[in-house]
Amino acid sequence: MDSHRQDVEKRFWDKFAKRYDAFMKMAAREYPDLINLILTDLKTDNIVLEIACGTGIISLAVSRKVHQVYATDISQAMIDIATTKAKQEKIQNIVFSVQDGYSLNYENHTFDVCIIANAFHVMQEPGKVLKEVRRVLKPEGLLIAPGYCHGETLKARFVSWLISLTGFKAYHKFTVRSFSDFIEREGFSLLKNQVLKSRFPLAYVLARPV
What we know:
210 residues, alpha/beta, Rossmann fold, globular
């Protein structure tokens, strides 16, 4: 089952990789505000992990503030694009790697911060990913988890359905409340739950492992 899931996800995101940045510019106009919000919760000595980094939009931005970034994605094509961007921008404090967020190749209590941005809704079993996050975060580490809430409004549910026709499936149509409840159920204590206006309401969750 897990091997099948990995194959399906790799094929989809590898195929989508070349269009990802153009799609994000069109569909995620709130990202500059989101990145600025993330930066306010980071410190210069932080060692940061990003899971499901895509083409490195967030990793590249935060690398300019923090000590070190490790950025992972299940798609080789996404990582290739992100790596090329880092080289072009002469950014040297990011290590990109192809990894499955369900099983990370890092030691326990390695990271000060873990960022998972807008990915839980497209993960079949996001709770398993959060268990890995708890393992690799330091005891006083931070989870930064912005999440699109496809179930928050009638408009969001309709747009989610339209997008699903293209093959982009949201396995979980979170509301703002159910998203924060999900994070808490998986062993985190919420420090912040802020909503950014977007096509889908975007819940910005900041939490610590309990």
